[in-house]
Amino acid sequence: MNQKLSKTAIISIDVETDWGGRLPASTETIRGVKVGLPKIFEILNQYQCPATLFINGEIVPYIQEEINISIQKKFEIGSHGFTHRKMPELSKDEIIKELAKSKAILEEYTGQKIRGFRAPQARIPEGLYQYLKQTNYEYDSSVFAGKMPSRFNNQNVPIEPYLQDNIWEIPVNSLPLIPLPMGLLWIDLFQLSLIQLLSSVSPLPPIVQVYMHPFDFIPAYSVEDLSIPWGAKVWYTRQQGSALKTLNCLLYWLQQLGYTFRTAGDVINSCSMS
Ligand SMILES: [Zn+2]
């Protein structure tokens, strides 16, 4: 393990439309970004914590202001695809288009090189790493440790970044003793105190990556004509007021444990050097 990377925490935010990216992009469907994201930024500020934002290409024209703020804060911006469609259901050409189009629009609006990618719903299509190489990405962060029925089943995921087909993969670790990835919503659902207790039996890995969504921080609103699986409905309509407090306490805890907050790209820089 690269010494520089021991006890590193990456805070990643998947930026998409509300209801898990299921709504078409418009000014009406990004309440999470408009209301929730500033609240996340406020908390990150308190801990001088940088973030990595994986942004959906199709909402970019609606969120120039939030992109500008992220650039000012020196946050990293990566791609979360152009649309939020399930990539394994797309053709090779469609996948390449998703990767290239999102990279192009993000580079246009940020004036920066887009290096990283995260697949919508962490659903990895076959050949992804080759397509990432083809479209000039440097790293991927779509491997979520743990299991979510029909989405992914990743047991024994490496605990540190690794190279696959010349693309770095920077996985999201699982919760201690719970086979689910380290998402803020899961931590909120199980309660941080339980996660802390379990981590005394099964300590957090040297590189921790937490993921969250801006809509995790706003009350869910009802939408017509949206077929949403029952499980997701329960997920999105739960009490959401506690997410902010959970994020605050989580960052405090990681800091107390001696973790340094870094962006995913920054971690990849250290990996490439070692
Ligand atoms: Zn997403």
TrEMBL record:
Highest taxon above the source species: Bacteria
Pfam families named in the record: Polysacc_deac_1
Single GO molecular function: hydrolase activity, acting on carbon-nitrogen (but not peptide) bonds
Any GO BP annotation: carbohydrate metabolic process
Gene3D superfamilies reported in the protein's UniProt record: Glycoside hydrolase/deacetylase
Matches recorded under PROSITE patterns: NODB (PS51677)
All copies of domain NodB homology, residue ranges: 22-262
This protein's name: NodB homology domain-containing protein
Native source organism of the sequence: Planktothrix tepida PCC 9214
